[in-house]
Design goal:
16% strand, Helicase, Ruva Protein, domain 3, Arc Repressor Mutant, subunit A
């Protein structure tokens, strides 16, 4: 097979692996290009080397885990998936890698191959690691990864129950994901190729739901997408509930079924606003001035504090209903209009 034919075959393989991935086209293109280069440079009969370390950054539910899954499927390596909270130390990381390799059929394991400064070198077979929410890994452990991620090093000193040894991972591939890249150690972050993912739009979420739930009409899909706050996982769960409501109830009107499901989730408006969103806005309306975070938390004491800052506020900001300034949170003119419309509708 000629070089051009080989490259064409590689591109087809990579394109097939990412077929149907909706949105974040620029980010996906960058990843695909890196994978094509890595596959094209792989020597015949030698393990695949992935010199780049991907850091997938973006808000929750922006496709980071799905993108990581597709990356590792292209590489075709034994796969270890971890949560940042689970990676307590470098030794613990390699204990989990060892367990994952031993679970392969046939089992895989590191083999000793010489010494370095009197310590045995443990050479690992090819594998892929995905660490989600890597910013939760302690800074000390992040610093320990630095030599591991250097393309001309790829070693790590370990000192656990198995004694002092040097792990050699020349053919390992690392993929990290984070919702808070600013919380990462700067040196660690600099050793990664950062792939930034943006939040999905309502149209993109609607397209995702339409692919999975072909029996739902467009009107239902549109409402589900907007009411899900553009979060695919939430939209899929809502769509499944609508299907169940249509099957379970005597009412075959899909719009009525959608409305009942949304009301059951506390969603009262077509833009996705919930009862709690309405309460938040009314606090600002009553105060008639910028409101500090602590005052909001005190007045909305029955709503989890993290939900206020990580869910309600980003959503209301995206709708243009609030502003967050140095003096505090304040209601916008658009927010005032929405509250007026809600009052007229009896909410």
């Amino acid at each position: 097979m000629s070089l051009s034919d080989t490259l064409l075959s590689i591109k087809e393989k990579v394109n097939l692996a990412f077929a149907g991935f909706i949105a974040n086209e620029d980010a996906v293109y960058s990843v695909k290009r890196s994978l094509v280069v890595a596959l094209a440079n792989a020597a015949a009969g030698q393990p695949l080397a992935m010199p780049k370390t991907f850091l997938l950054s973006g808000p929750p539910s922006s496709g980071k885990s799905e993108l990581a899954r597709r990356i590792t499927s292209v590489l075709g390596l034994p796969f270890v998936r971890l949560d940042g909270r689970a990676v307590r130390t470098r030794e613990h990381l390699f204990d989990m890698i060892d367990d994952a390799l031993l679970a392969q059929k046939p089992p895989l394991r590191a083999e000793t191959n010489g010494e370095q400064s009197g310590m045995p070198l443990w050479e690992y077979p090819p594998f892929a690691v995905f660490v989600d929410e890597v910013h939760l890994v302690t800074e000390r452990t992040q610093e320990a990864f630095l030599t591991l991620l250097e393309s001309d090093d790829r070693t790590l000193l370990l000192n656990g129950e198995k004694g002092r040894r040097v792990a050699v991972v020349k053919s390992a591939a690392f993929v990290f994901a984070t919702t808070k890249p600013a919380d990462l150690n700067r040196a660690f972050r600099s050793r990664c190729i950062e792939i930034q993912l943006r939040k999905y739009t309502a149209d993109e979420v609607q397209a995702m739901v339409a692919k999975r739930f072909t029996q739902l009409p467009d009107s239902a899909l549109e409402t589900i997408a907007s009411c899900s706050r553009c979060l695919p996982r939430v939209a899929f769960a809502m769509a499944q509930e609508v299907i169940e409501e249509i099957l379970w109830s005597d009412d075959q009107d899909s719009r009525a079924c959608v409305r009942r499901v949304m009301h059951g989730r506390g969603v009262r408006f077509a833009n996705g606003c919930t009862v709690d969103d309405l309460r938040y806005l009314r606090v600002l309306q009553r105060e008639k001035r910028p409101v500090g975070e602590n005052i909001l938390k005190a007045q909305l004491y029955d709503i989890d504090a993290l939900r206020l800052t990580d869910d309600l506020e980003p959503f209301l900001l995206s709708l243009g209903f609030i502003l967050i300034t140095a003096k505090g949170r304040q209601l916008t003119a658009a927010g005032e209009r929405f509250l007026g419309e809600a009052r007229q509708a009896g909410n």
